[in-house]
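notes to self, project folder thing:

trying the whole complex as one job this time. last attempt i did each chain seperately and stitching them together was a nightmare. two parts in total, labels are on each line so i dont mix them up again. if this works i'll redo the older ones the same way
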Amino acid sequence: MKGFGYLVKEGFKNVWSNRIMSIASVCVLISCLVLTGAASLFSINVRAAVETVGQSNETTVYIKDGYSQLEAVYIGKDIEKISNVTSAEFYSKDEAIKQYKEELGDDVFAQMQNDDNPLPDAFIVVMDDLSLYDETVAQIQKIDGVDKISNRSEIAKKLTDISNLVNLISFWVIIALMIISLFIIANTIRATMYSRRFEISIMKSVGATNSFVRMPFLVEGVVIGFIAAIISTGGIVLLYEGLMAAMQQFQFMEYFAIPIQSVILYIAGAFVVAGVLIGFFGSMISIRKYLKMEGNEILGW
Amino acid sequence: MIDFVNVSKTYPNGTHALYDVSLHIDRGEFVFIVGASGAGKSTFLKLIMHEETPTSGEIVINDNKISTLKRRQIPYLRRHMGIVFQDFRLIEKMNVFDNVAFAMRAVGESTSVIKKRVPYVLDLVGLKNKMKNKPSELSGGEQQRVSLARALVNNPEIIIADEPTGNVDPEMSHEIIELLNEINAKGTTVLVVTHEHELVREFNQRVITINRGRIIGDTGNSEIGDIDVSEYYDDIPQYPENAVVIPD
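result (full assembly):
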């Protein structure tokens, strides 16, 4: 198209001359993109956690209350006799309370010493073949003195359920925000078109084609979308790293959390594509009406 | 160049703007179109510019039937025309040069051509020394000359001036029409809608008089002939129904 450079320049000028509305559009789009990104990151993390939990070859077998440590040792030997069990390591309630104290502080567990310790003794069981997980658990359950078994697949299922729920809620929130963004951008462009209706009417009267009239406004929408995408990418990195720093005390988070660097390029790419598309279609919605008008109709006379 | 064949226009609200209008305007003609407010002059111009489409009849411009034009072809039709508005329609934030250049940019002309052509056209209308001025720094007459330069800059075959002297003082009005006359002398067809009968008389060009949507006088058409057009200008009310002077 002839004069393409001029049209692009005009598009950038539009963003600046209509800056209040442009900033409003960028802000709404940022909130939309950051929420989308946050929901995606949450989902990615939950999926990673589910995989970690699912692949973990350690099952905790709790011993019923009232069994002495010696009795527990025998229970351990019975567990080890099961063909699919590679090892069963004793994990006493004293060790358990000690670890809790280290992770969450002494104060909370100060009164939970010796006989006042509410935690059960346990065995950390490693299995040979995880495909036989359910059968092996059933065999362990039959042994006298075994209370309950922490079922990793259930944790994984719960995490997946949470992830699905978050995905579902995010989906509708994102759809709603996308529509709002589209509406806000369409209004921003409409405001620009209104302030430039004089120029549009002159352009049409001298024989400018519709694509020529349309171009600066499309550029404006796309620029708004692009700016929002770049700021959103920076925002999501800061948010994620801030959250990770705040959660450092919970060591399991560090264990599960995926590093932002591994996904940031995909997120940035998705943000740019989404921002640019919303900007583009937001503009298209507004322009259509003006392009159908002629002469004084454009000026509202 | 421009042919109207039995053209009628009725707006969706029921207003009958033109009835069965037929006329021919040759290439290189200078035509005044006169008539009272609401007579149908604006509709006549809008039909030529294809801002409106006729309800019936056919309009032919440069041997192209307007009714057969596709929507995307309309801009190319308009590139043959230069429009001068009564209210100038200059963009206040742009200086004189950019206002004129805008019309060239809108049709995708290159910067190098614009830089050569705009000063030339501004020289033609006597405003070469005011290229950097903003419209608000110019008199009404000067603003209209900028508007005229903008209409001329794409080298159109037809200049359509809708009340070009409506917002300028009498002396300037004369200059504007004089300028249009000079442009016409170089071969451009000029259509001027005006209320100012003194000017019309002074320049002795073809005059088409419209009243109540009908052509009631045409000095260029012996079948219709001349009439005392002064009654159809300015704030004179619509010509009475019983006084229609169209010959049978």
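what i see at first glance: Residues 152-195 of chain A form the longest helix (44 residues).
need to look closer tmrw
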